[in-house]
Fold this sequence. Notes:
A five-stranded mixed β-sheet has the order 2-12-8-10-5. The protein has a five-stranded mixed β-sheet with strand order 3-6-4-11-7. The protein has 14 helices and 27 strands. By secondary structure, it is α+β, with helices and mostly antiparallel strands.
Amino acid sequence: MSKLDELIKELCPDRVEYKSVGEIATLVRGNGLPKSDFTETGIGCIHYGQIYTYYGTTTNKTISCVAEETAQKLKQVNTNDIIITNTSENVEDVCKAIVWEGLESIVTGGHATIIKGLPVPKFFVYYTQTSEFFKVKKKLATGTKVIDVSANNIAKIPIPIPPLPVQEEIVRILDNFTELTAELTAELTAELKTRKKQYEYYREYLFNIDTANLLCLGNESVGKFTRGRELQKKDFTETGVGCIHYGQIYTYYGTYTNKTKTFVSNEFAQKARRAKYGDLVIATTSENDEDVCKAVAWLGDKEIAISSDACFYTHNLYPKYVAYFFQTEQFQKQKRPYITGTKVRRVNIDNLAKIKIPVPTFMEQQRIVDILDRFETICNDISNGLPAEIKARQKQYEYYRDKLLTFKNIN
């Protein structure tokens, strides 16, 4: 029998009393505090929007401050007070709560309520994360675009009040579970980072082996660039001829693909410039230097339409070899001097044609691609597995949290 089971058997073997939040705590509604009041230094403050975008269950530091004069007009939050949001754009985030564990007092503003006087504040915050609490707050929520649960309605919400030793043990268990989940996430993230560094190292190494045999991308014996034509998102159709819009290259595609995300009509495709199997599709425009010239190798059987602000590179090299080359620092160094523009960054195809690529034998190109494919598969497996593992842990955590915080009502 666990310590929690023993405590429940001893202190509340049958049922637990439920009381409304207003019966067991004091609620103070916040006021003011637009983001324009934030200062570099001063009195710590928590804006209601930060509670569901930045903070977790507790914090002892704030990411924002206000001037002392401003703080005097706002509601004060003391150690072990809870701040709960009254407003959000969705039901999930409204009533998200956080315990202030800092030693110094801070302030909060409108669209938030301070809950004072709970002996185990983290017990309440954990309870606000349960499906049982969600059902109640959903009934009390008002609004459509902006969801609101007023301080008066929060005061009506019933919560279980087990004896304090039971509350403390439940908090201890959930704290440990949260910590273990965070450790696992950190380990998996570190593993992915290490693998990516290894991958990048070998990619640079492999493309620097044959630097003596460098040819310009625009060399007639290597390949040529073709600009895409006007293709707006309004031209997309449900089915038809595949197309790649320049923005999709750095937001959706990886190193290569044999399927397109979007299509255009057959009539539109007839007027478009089309890439064929093996061509490299390149974004020649972006908002930043990293994404401009991001490229994807087209490995599909059929020709596809290419938008303006993109081009495609027809060549006699191994398709994936060229795509991997565009990811190397060797390529990036050559690309940077050709970038123009301020808000919108561009590299034109005449300058792209000047960039030099190592051109080993076809067999060597294939060997390099095989090695990099294996590395990319490993990295993708970890990248895909990481969210799945975290999601599984989160579901497990939610199950046990709800189980721990569900009691038979004494009333």
